Amino acid sequence: MAPPIPLLAVRGSHGTSLLCGPPSCETHSAFQRDPRLSRCVAFSRDGALFAWCNGHSVSVVRSADGAVVSTFDLPKTCLVDFSPLSKVLATWQPYNKTQDSAQGDANLQLWDLQSGQLIKALYQKKVESWCPSWSEDEKICVRSVNNELHFYENNDFNSIANKLHMQKVSDFELSPGGQPSKVAVYVPGSKGAPSFVRLYQYPVLGGPTAALANKSFFKADRVSMQWNKKASAVLVTASTEVDKTGASYYGEQTLHYLAVNGETAVVQLMKNGPIYDVAWSPNAAEFCVVYGFMPAKATIFNLKCDPVFDFGTGPRNAAYYSPQGHILVLAGFGNLRGQMEVWDVKKYKQVSKPQAPDATHFSWCPDGEHVVTATCSPRLRVSNGYKIWHYTGSVLHKWDVEAGSELWEVCWQPFPVGTFPERAIKYQAAPSELGTTQAAPTQAYRPPALRHLPATPSAKLHEEEPPQNMRPGGGEKVLSKAALKNQKKREAKKAAKQESKTEPEAPSDPAPITNSQSEVSCGDPDTDKKIKNLKKKLKAIEELREQQAAGKVLQKNQLEKMQKEEQLLKELEDLQISQ
How far apart are CA 330 and CA 340, in angstroms? Predict the structure, then answer.
């Protein structure tokens, strides 16, 4: 049986529509486009249901045939989401107080999708972490209420089954998968005390002794926590708003590792600067970090936090693993030019290097073969549209909004794990009528005055580092930053020296002046002195030519001196003839 074709939801000023993915890339015939302005769209976890709010109501339909499942009269709804088994639909609208109710109306509603009945209405003032977090079997649900965690069981929201009693829990992350569920909690430091992250296994939530792992650290105004798919470890990116050293306006970031077996570590990064992105591989055994002042480094680490492979430096600030984990895309979006590097992470070999200028969104299709990039408002209000690519760099489908219209969001229909098996990686670009956008090699700028001269090695603004295998016995010696820099300098000097030796001489170049020639005397002291001075000037010109061939930028007076070479040669020839 052929695998299904994923759908792509498209939301913008033109309304809400569904597009069939590659190879057809046509409008989904079973879904009638809603022309009204949609505030949000969402697929269920298995992709079977699709929901959107158009400012009048919240509608839920079956993705396959567009059949209506439920409709809710909720015109103010701004966000919707499904529970993992699609038993509950969560809707959120901005919190608002009225004259009739000083407390305001409950703005977070939980609905039974099968019956359409309201299960519970709750208060959720902040949009951050608005949706409750469920375990994949829906046996546990967690909410953060007044800096403490409330646990519910089996979707019974009328009674709190358990609480995590801890001072000022600022953030939490529930582990993926089924039971036993684990939760990572973050408590910010205060009054000189450090911030800390702890891991607990439900329902044992009492105090530090019950924690599976504990990691404390300073310099943290906020954190981002990511579980791997096996729920065996968490990566914590701790960030400060201000870098007190003044080295970066991004603030300061550190990366910490916590495992459920109690192991903790600080991930040692090989370049100073901000941490742009951290991504777990779907195999849960390694992770990729993009970090450092531009050009940024990207490195894969194992579960011991040891570097496995370093991708060198480049214009990048994001990392995206394919759903199957066999391909990694390193990209530079936002204030960068949209360059994407597609890597085979089993062979550590680059597949393609396409470009998506002005892209504000990137996501993998569940089939692991295609990706979508989009330019969306309000991040960019011009050139809105999206492209569907094959990972080899071919553009398979392109859609640009009409003048005066905007694109707000695109998202792929998800599928259960295992729906799309891993396929062998291709290195030949997939056939496409729209072609590819491989980045063309750029040449260094040369001033007009030097363009008629032979090309010389140009000085680079940034020191570029090539990819290298960091595994012991990986075939390449792992060097420190200082050693690598010195090695590059030696190689560049040697190459320049070799080039100056092997470069053929032009027909107009003078014959080399030897010591034996300079020692010949004509008997006239004045003539000998003139010849000696001319040879001295010609030797100086020869040295300048060697310096230029080695890459040195000469000054204006030195270039003028080199232009007098023919005149000096003629004078020397006339003096030698008259002897």
Answer: 6
